[in-house]
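Morning. Coffee machine broken again, so started the prediction first thing and wrote up yesterday's gels while waiting. Chain of 471 residues, entered below exactly as on the submission form.
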Amino acid sequence: MTTQIFVASTPFGLTTLAAALADGAWPAADQRILVTTNNSIAPEASPGLLGSAGMEQLTGLFDRTYDYNELISPLHPSEWRPPDTELPLLQRLVAHEWGAVDHDLRLIVESIQAAPALTIARLFPDAQIDVYADGLMSYSPTRVGLYTQIGSRVDRVHHLDLVPGVTPLLLREWGAKPALIDSASFRTVVGSLGIEVPKVITAAEPGSVAVLLGQYLSAIGILSVEEEQDLLRELVTGAVAAGFSTLVFKPHPSAPDLLTTALVEEADRLGVDLTVHDEPDLAEAWFDQPGIGLVAGCFSTALLTAASCYGLPTARIGTELALERVRPYENSNRIPVTLVHATLPDLHQLAAGPALAPAAVGAVSTDDLVRTVGYCMQSVRNPDLRPTAERVLAEHWEEVRGYVKRRRLTILDLPGRLPSAPVKKRQRKKQSPLRRTVRRILGPKLSRMVGRGKRKILRTLRPAPRPVPTP
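Came back before lunch.
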């Protein structure tokens, strides 16, 4: 019996899965199971995936639906990582609970590098694995090493063509094959959800509304709260300078209310109409409305969804600061920031030029830029990308210098590295034959320890200096 188990935690992810199913990404199976997870900090205080508008009807694509949080309660999905000694028992229990004992299984998961997807993959050790992209992070290299028994089972990475011409780096070291999800299928699924669009958008004149997308950059440590408040104020002032007086702000569900307050105050100061829509539904459900003339934000996935899937004018704000602040360099948010910064115009420039003008990156293709930054992030997992990185850094330094760190280039010995400090030559003291023999027998580490111990003993035995007589 063939069984396909789909794991989803966000509305965007489940919508992407539905679009892939509409494309025929997987052959027919005897049963299809949907497993929902709520990975928020406090799952009990949030509505979860099926609490979002339009998501309940997508469960009709599956034969059965299970709640992963309910299965492992009171443990948190992102924290539960059972030890290997418990896996044989848990594998049988979960397979029996989900009706998948001794089935021919295929898992379709997101974020395979971390729980809960990684844990579920370990619970079904014989299943083939497909990964689907829940956003721009699929263009980033795999951020952690996978167990061989996990990585060797990964077959494909399904993703929307959010950045045409760019191939995702995720799981390429395991030979995973990228598989495109048709944008038309995605738009069809989003349009079928019946999500209510704010009246300020539906009643607006064509191209007269700017949609502003919020994130939670201070909560994940990229910016401080004050810096994110300043960024949101710039978002409002930039949209107004571009000619928009009707604004709709879509905050991230995890963002604190304090951020929204700063944005509202700025809109009041400028005397423009601002509507805050804080329902946890898909912003993409608005993008087919003719009233939208601009979508702006920092580096939200919805920016490139609006641009590539719906052809809307889009603009970025604050990506220069985000590129500087994303730490460590391996942070998977680096590639989303890079993509948005390289492909979208700056919001402040819209008043002086066409809204669809891309940001200039010279003669460097976006794919080469991603490969260069990806190699610098995870060089050990992607050694074959080094020639591309060397060529791009050597030939196009001025265009790409903002995307890389010179200390990182120095560590990897790449073009653009910091100049080497002059090395002062010191004349080595000639060692006696006895000292050389001891060093050869004991090795350098033990020899140094013996030397330090000898000096300590000599200092102890050294007589104290005589007191100087006073006159």
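The domain at 2-191 is CATH 3.40.50 (Rossmann fold). Going to sketch it on the whiteboard this afternoon.
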